[in-house]
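Researcher: Please translate sequence to structure tokens.
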Amino acid sequence: MLLADLIELLEAFSLNDSQVRTALSRLVADGWLEGRRLGRRSLYRITRMGRHRFEEATRRIYFGPPRRWQGDWHVAVLPLGIERDELRKDLGWLGFGMLAPGVMLHPAPDTASLASVIRDLPPAERPLVITGKSPLGDSSRLRALVRRCWDFVQLSAAYRQFLATFTPLRRALGNGLNPTPLEALLSRIILIHDYRRIVLRDPMLPARLLPPDWIGREAFGAARDVYRALYGVAERWIDTRIHDERGPLPPPGPGFRRFP
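Model: Translation complete:
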């Protein structure tokens, strides 16, 4: 993406040229983006590491909770004698909860993302992951385990705030609101920004382990409905205003419209 196009877009969020450049410099320093010059223009693209992590986040944000669960659990035993904070954070980002010091678990993690996290580590720093069925067949005991390992009180509060923010927009779009392409794009960016901040903290547990009235289901439905109503109009702004070194951006891949 050309820097000038990004600056034009972010001006709509009241961000100035200096703020955009500072943010991009930090993303480059953290390994998410790489930049290069094209004559007098600057171009930024996502790095291999950034794309890798972006694809993992995409599965969490857009695909929703697991559809089926056979009662299996994945238990990750963290290695001794190393700094484990970063590994705990990575596994927590995949939805793993802390059962005991050095032991984390999840009933249905994204196995592709879990394998990716493990492969990225040196062999000596990789967790031992044990998979098997739990003898805890009673629902009340399973839910007690869930309460012990994950904080659903704060998560529920965050989802309630999300619904309070976006339900009016969902209703207005359903009643025929017709935003301009830029308005649709800005709304879509804010929607996904706010939703991902919550859903990436959501362990995405199977329905059997959640309360019957779990608010996360309603939040996912609201995010899906607003996104579907906005994305076509929003893409028209991107198609005409955002460029790379060859010109307008190519069309998105087949996974782009996979919000269930």
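Researcher: Any highlights?
Model: Residues 31 and 75 are 30 Å apart (CA to CA).
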